[in-house]
Write a structure and sequence with these properties.
Layout: E1 2-13, E2 16-27, E3 31-35, H1 42-49, E4 56-62, E5 74-77, H2 91-97, H3 112-124, H4 140-152, E6 158-162, H5 170-187, E7 190-194, E8 207-211, E9 215-219, H6 221-224, H7 227-234, E10 239-243, E11 246-250
Parallel strand pairs: 3-7, 3-8, 5-6, 6-7
Antiparallel strand pairs: 1-2, 1-4, 8-9, 10-11
Helix pairs in contact: 2-3, 2-4, 3-4, 4-5
This protein binds adenosine-5'-triphosphate and magnesium ion.
Magnesium ion (MG) binds next to helix 1.
C-alpha cells in the first residue's frame, strides 16, 4: 500500500507557490530522506502531509486518504521543539504528554497506563536511565530521542521528522540515527526525514528526494545522489564520493580553503 502519494502537488502560501509540481509515492515501511537547501520547501511539504497546512492543489494522499483524515496515523516531530523548558517536566513526563494530547483533553494527573507505556517507549529509545531527569537538563541528542519517544506514544504508521539531526554533534547524530534505524527495523514505521546532512541516514534511506521549490530528483539513493544532480542544487563544490560500498555526500555547506588557512 502507498503510505504517501503525491501527484502534481503544488503547495502555496496566500496564493504564492512554495513548492510546485511534485510527484512521488512512498510505500508503507519505507524511509524517505528529504533533502534541499534552506527555503526549498521541506518543512512545507511535511506540514502539508501532516495536515498543519492545507493550501495546495493536485493530489495528496496518506494511506489512501486526504491528509486531514489520516491525522491519527501520523506522528510529527517539528524542526525545533516548542517545549517551554522553564516548565520543569521530566523526560518521562514529556514522553507521556504524547499519549495525552492526542486524546484532545488535558489531564491533571497522567493515567498509570500512559506512564507505563511512556516508560516502555523511553526504554525503546535507550533512555530508561534518564526517565526522572529534567528534560531541560538533557543533552541535545537525548532531548531529540525523548521527542522521538513522545511521537511514538500514539503508535503512528507514518512519522514525519523535520531535521532531527540538526544542532547535534557527530556523535549525537549517530545516536539519533541509530534510534531511527531501530524504529524502521523493529516497528516498520514509514518515515520521512528532512536533513541537511544525509550521510548518517543513508543506511536507512530507501528513497531520497531532492527539492528546491520544485522536485529536482526522487528515487533510490544511488540514483539521486549523483554528482551532477547534487551540483545542480548546491553548486560546484558539492559532490558525491563513493568509498567502498558507501556514498558520502558533500553539499558544500562547510569548507576550508586549502591555501590561506581561513575557513568559513
Ligand atoms: N507560514 C508561511 N507563510 C508564508 N510563507 C512561508 C511560510 N512558511 C514558509 N514559507 C515560505 O515557503 C518557502 C519554503 O519554506 P520551508 O520552511 O518549507 O523551507 P525548508 O526547506 O524547510 O527550509 P529550512 O532548511 O530553512 O528549514 C520559503 O520561501 C518560506 O519563506
Ligand atoms: Mg525547514
Amino acid at each position: 500500500m502507498n503510505a504517501v502519494k503525491a501527484e502534481n502537488l503544488t503547495i502555496t502560501y496566500e496564493g504564492k507557490p512554495a513548492l510546485e509540481g511534485v510527484d512521488f509515492t512512498l510505500d508503507e515501511g519505507e524511509t524517505l530522506l528529504l533533502l534541499g537547501p534552506n527555503g526549498a520547501g521541506k518543512t512545507t511539504l511535511l506540514k502539508t502531509i501532516a495536515c498543519f497546512h492545507g493550501e495546495y492543489t493536485g493530489k495528496l494522499e496518506v494511506f489512501g486518504r486526504e491528509p486531514c483524515e489520516a491525522r491519527d496515523l501520523i506522528g510529527y516531530v517539528p524542526q525545533s521543539h516548542s517545549l517551554n523548558e522553564r516548565v520543569p517536566l521530566t523526560a518521562l513526563e514529556v514522553v507521556a504528554m504524547g499519549g495525552i494530547y492526542r486524546k484532545g483533553f488535558f489531564h491533571f494527573k497522567i493515567p498509570g497506563a500512559t506512564i507505563e507505556k511512556a516508560s516502555e517507549v523511553l526504554g525503546f529509545v535507550g533512555l530508561d536511565h534518564v526517565a526522572d531527569r529534567l528534560f531541560s537538563e538533557l543533552s541535545g541528542g537525548q532531548k531529540q530521542r525523548v521527542l522521538l519517544a513522545r511521537a511514538l506514544m500514539s503508535d503512528p504508521r507514518l512519522l514525519l521528522l523535520d531535521e532531527p539531526l540538526s544542532a547535534l554533534d557527530p556523535s549525537a547524530r549517530g545516536e539519533v540515527a541509530g534510534v531511527l534505524n531501530k524504529i524502521k527495523r523493529e516497528r516498520g514505521i514509514t518515515m520521512i526525514i528532512t536533513t541537511h546532512d544525509i550521510n548518517p541516514l543513508l543506511e536507512i534511506g530507501d528513497k531520497v528526494m531532492l527539492i528546491n521549490r520544485r522536485l529536482i530528483a526522487f528515487g533510490k539513493p544511488g540514483e539521486v545522489l549523483q554528482d551532477s544532480v547534487i551540483k545542480s542544487v548546491y553548486g560546484p563544490l558539492a559532490r558525491v564520493i563513493p568509498v567502498e560500498d558507501r556514498l558520502f555526500c558533500i553539499t558544500g555547506d562547510v569548507h576550508i580553503h586549502r591555501h590561506g588557512g581561513g575557513g568559513r
